[in-house]
Every structure is written in C-alpha cells, then in structure tokens.
Amino acid sequence: MLLAGFDILLTQPGYFLLWLIPIIAALVISISVHEFSHAYAAFWLGDQTAKNHGRLTLNPLRHLEPVGSILILLIGFGWGRPVPVNPSLVKSGRRGLALIAAAGPASNIFFALFIAIFFQLGFLDVQTYHFSSWTQFLALGYVAIFFQHLLTLNLILAVFNLLPMAPLDGSGVLRGIVPEGWLPFISRIETYGPVLLFGVFMLQFFIGARILGYLFDPVLNLANKLVG
C-alpha cells in the first residue's frame, strides 16, 4: 500500500495525499465491518461479552488495532483488535466458535461483492474517471477509486484472515471443523502461528521473497475484474 506509493510522495506530494485519503477511509471501514461481524455473530450465538465491551458497533475507534492497521497501510494486509469471546457462553460449542471466526471474513467477502454490483452495473467506473495527478482530479473519479480500494481491502482482509494459523480467523474456523481428536495437535502448532507470520513478513521485505504474492496476486486480479 503506502510503500508502493513512496515514489509518489517524493515527486507529487499533493497527489499522494489524494491517493492516501481513500485508502485510509477504506481501511477503517473494512476493519470495522470485519470486527463488528465477529461481535454480532457472538451476540447472536448467546455470548454478550463483545457487547459488554462496546464492540457491537461500527465505530472504528472500538475496532482498530495499531500494529495491524499500520501493517495494512504499509503493505496491504493486517488485522483489527480481536473481539472478546467467552466460549462457555457460545451456543453450539466449537461449531459456534467457528461461525464467529468465519463471520469476519465472510462479511468482508459479501461487502466486496455488494460493491462489485455497482461497478458491474456501470454506476461506478474507475476507467472513465481515472486520474493520475493533482491536476487531473475529478470528484466522480475519486468516489470510484475509493470504492475500488474498499472492495480490494475487503477481499484482502478476508483472504488473509482465513489463513489457518493463529491468531488469524482461519485458525478458529479450523478448530470448529476438524475431528475433536485433532485439537491437541492444533493447539500445539497454534503457538507457532505468530512466529510463522513474523517470519513471512521478514522474508517478504528483507530478502524480497514473494511468498504472499502467490496468495494476494489472485485476489488483486479478482478485484480488478470485479471493478472492470
């Protein structure tokens, strides 16, 4: 994200600001939708912990997590503040917990597809109103590009969070669908999840390994098709 636009900051700072504002707005909305959906799913399944912590809201100040938000801004993926859940209060046991974990990514996917409808029907058109400099700024183009970022970030959040490693949502989904006898093994490997994620980040940005590119390139291609 921002790292990709660093050269723009150096050459066209005014345009960089125009470019940055819709990205930040899209980021805030995407994370809020994601975390609110976790909270609502937990509430729907009988656990009011998230509600009692003020998380049953779309207010972004309740959902943004500093490190995860900065990572999304810098490199295009990250996370929000985890929603508190009390497993003993959730209906349907670990199946219910899996539904709560899946609710965040699912909401991002549905939100992205909803936005795509407006592109496909021609109400939004990035190509027609595209601008590449401060002097070519057009309000309609700005709106279209904002929704393009919103669609793309929702897809990225969904796919990244569905990776089956702690602390991402995919780990919670996996716990709900595997045989119960697998849970001790999953609990052991979950302890390595944060280390693995950190290792991937380091390989990606210090030696140029495109590990995450294999995951996100298809997502970006899909986003481009949905807005095209």
Topology:
Blueprint: H1 6-11, H2 13-44, H3 49-52, H4 66-75, H5 93-120, H6 139-161, H7 169-177, H8 183-190, H9 193-206, H10 213-227
Helix pairs in contact: 2-5, 2-6, 5-6, 5-7, 6-10
Q: Spans of 5+ residues with little confidence (pLDDT < 50)?
A: none
Order of helices and strands: HHHHHHHHHH
Percent of residues in β-strands:
under 5%
Question: Which structural class should the secondary elements be placed in?
Answer: mainly alpha
How do you describe this structure in short?
It is built from 10 helices and no strands. The model has no long low-confidence stretch (mean pLDDT 85).
Description:
By secondary structure, this protein is an all-alpha fold. The protein has one domain. Helix content is 65%, strand content 0%. The chain contains ten helices and no strands. It has helices at residues 6-11, 13-44, 49-52, 66-75, 93-120, 139-161, 169-177, 183-190, 193-206, 213-227. It starts with 5 loop residues before the first helix and ends with a helix. The model has no long low-confidence stretch (mean pLDDT 85).
For this entry, give a set of tags:
228 residues; mainly alpha; 10 helices
